[in-house]
Amino acid sequence: MRAYFLCAVSAVAMVFPVFGSTIAPNLGSAASFSLLGDTISNTGTSLAFGNVGAKTTITGFPPGTSTGTVYTAPSDPTVVAAYNDFLLAFNNAASDVSTPPTQSVTDLTTNRSFLGNNVFTFGLTDVVTTANITLTFDAQFDSSEVFIIKTTRDFVVNGPLSFNLTNGALASNIYWIVGRDATISSGGGAVTFDGNILAGSSFTMSANPGGSGVLAGTINGCVFAETANTLAGQTVVGGCNAANVAGVPEPASAGLLALGCLVGGIGLRKRRSVRQAR
Q1: In this predicted model, what pLDDT tens digit does every residue of 5-20 receive, in sequence order?
Q2: What is the rounded CA–CA span in Å between residue 108 and residue 189?
Q3: What is the DSSP string of 13-63?
Q4: CA separation for the pair 91, 225 (Å, rounded)
Q5: What angle (nearest 5°) sits at the alpha carbon of residue 222, between those of residues 130 and 123?
């Protein structure tokens, strides 16, 4: 009887989110886009995994390439719908009503750790990272856990830094909600950045020394900006589900319990069948 009770609880937990869990921004149709904004400009041989779309103008595709569709026509209905879905997701995530902060972070000038299913917020200041720091994201053995990091003003990645995704954490579940401008500066070395960037104003990837053919950075996520997306070097943008192709995460405890219930249920039915046959 106790086993059946645990199975029932597990089934309910898988259908309904755990109380207090952080809800990921609903990107809607924007989720199929890798780059999205009012304008997009690219000066290098960038690669976007997913669709690329701008409400008004796109320049630099080609030489930039995409695994999806590059929507070059202004006010394309598909792009407009995706852009509106992005704005709705951004406004909801930026709102302290929809996603109230659960943790405060003072700065990103030293190594920091983030636990899943939390909303992290900075004070009313620009956030500038220090080169060569490590940001650790811990999903606590549940790959569905979400990380939301909110800045009310500008966000600047100042040089290379390291991401450490542990205990099932996925880059696709990390959301950087930037109130104004988001900038990634290579600082002389290619930057690898984990998470989806949703900027209230613009996004800029700076070029690496050596020209447009030199890798400036890899973003394991999608990049959406209300105004302009500017790629000033060779940039790889993995898209909203970029991390899911890196490997299959270990199942969470609820998933393991549900699997055990399924196997146990099958075994019980077989035992009953054997008894009835006798």
Answers
A1: 334 333 333 333 333 5
A2: 19
A3: HHHSPPTTPPPPP--GGGGGEEEEEEEEEE-S--EESSEEEEEEEEE-TTT
A4: 12
A5: 40
Cα angle 142, 118, 26 (rounded to 5 degrees) comes to 80
DSSP class of 252:
P
Instruction: Name the burial class of residue 25, with classes exposed (0-12), middle (13-18) and buried (19+) by CB atoms within 10 angstroms of its CB.
Output: buried
Q: Which amino acid is at 108?
A: L
d(CA 159, CA 129): 8
Enter the tokens of residue 182. 């988001």
CA count, 13 A, side-chain hemisphere, 242? 28
DSSP state of 73: S
Structure confidence by residue, pLDDT tens digits, 217-257: 999 999 999 999 999 889 999 999 985 433 333 333 334 33
Using DSSP, state whether 94 is helix, strand or coil.
helix
* Distance in angstroms (rounded) separating the CA atoms of residues 182 and 155: 5
Give dist(CA 142, CA 183) in Å, integer: 30
Residues 74 and 56: their CA atoms lie apart, in Å, by 5
Q: Which amino acid is at 17?
A: P
pTM: 0.81
261: number of Cβ within 10 Å: 17
- Counting every residue, how long is the chain? 278
For residues 210 and 182, is the Cβ–Cβ distance under 8 A?
no
Helix pair 2-15, 253-277: axis angle to 10 deg: 130
